[in-house]
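Forum: Protein Structure Q&A
Topic: Joint prediction for protein chains with partners

I've read a bunch of threads here and the consensus seems to be that you should model interacting components together rather than docking separate models afterwards. I'd like to see that in practice. Below is the full input, 396 residues plus whatever partners are listed. Could one of the regulars post the assembled result?
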Amino acid sequence: RFRFCGDLDCPDWVLAEISTLAKISSVKLKLICAQVLRDLLGGSMEYEKILKLTSDAKLESGDVKATIAVLGFILSSAAKHGVDSESLSSELQQLGLPKEHASGLCRSYEEKQSSLQDSLRAASLRLSRLGSVCWRVDYTLSSSELQEVHEPLVHLTLTVQDEQRGSTEAVPMAVSADKFRVLLAELKQAQALMNTL
Amino acid sequence: MLLVLSEAQRGDLGCLQRAGAAAVGELGRLAVELLRRGAAPRACEAAARKLNIDVDTIQHGIEGLTYLLTESSKLMISETDFQDSIHVLGFSDELNKLLLQLYLDNRKEIRRVLGELAPKLPSYHNLEWRLDVQLASRSLRQQIKPAVTIKLHLNENDDQTAHVLQTDPSTLLHLIQQLEQALGEMKTNHCRRIVRNMK
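Posted by a regular:
Agreed with the consensus. Here's the joint model:
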């Protein structure tokens, strides 16, 4: 039972690859961690650099990919379950990772832990997103039904990003003054509730 | 089980006798390529030029061979049945042996390709979830209503679809319980007996 695995057993493939990690020197492992963290945070990983760093340990290409996968799993899973770097270090040592390797890994993890959690938070399931709100206030003078209308009218266009289809949709609407007052009041109440949380 | 070849197919394959053993080897290779990757008209023309036979005969020959190979592989007929089936074509022994070898060599791969042609139900790709708590709505304040939102990603014939579902925790627990029961069925004696017999 490991905290960084979410209080579940450590997956077999992770256990198997810990010995591969031990083959790389602890200094090089820290640099590989930095590359993996860049990839997890949305940047680009420089695969050639990782290949150079692992060349001393004489790892095959399958082992290099396994190393990247295992590091990615350990770092993102630890961030997911909010494990602090001390506990992560001791749990990795329990799995058989040498002390210097574990402490190097956990130092890299500690530096980037909150950024990792922020990026994971942003990647969480989201059904749709409000893009922007555009508005315009008109004043209706007269219409075919009534000669003297003299009513204000609000035109709203909400831009909604649909996460399901990955498309942006514009929702236009015309709101009369009374309806708009109700809408605004309700939204202000919702905002007040959100601020109290 | 014997393969029954229609008149047209016998005609197609009849050209093989005239073409000779080397040609049959070449046509066999083209037939297998056709099954692997689809039609290659330029390869047929090249073969026609090399073997000095006209393109139509080559095409018919390849079609006949393809039918012979797929039907034999589909039905997984034994060597003797295959030999008996092509005996009716009246080929020389050498040609018969060549065809049999062609069948045996490519049987496994052809069966693999045929297996992929079966219609497939949508399959699981990924699951994203989110746990929310509804605290208030326009009609009612001071609520506590937990809900789990799930996005199920499925693979449907190389198309990715996503289904959004929402449930409350008790339904989710019931769902988990049902799925665990389904998995548990594999451990019953009945299922174990069937699995043992399939192996």
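Chain A has a mean pLDDT of 88.
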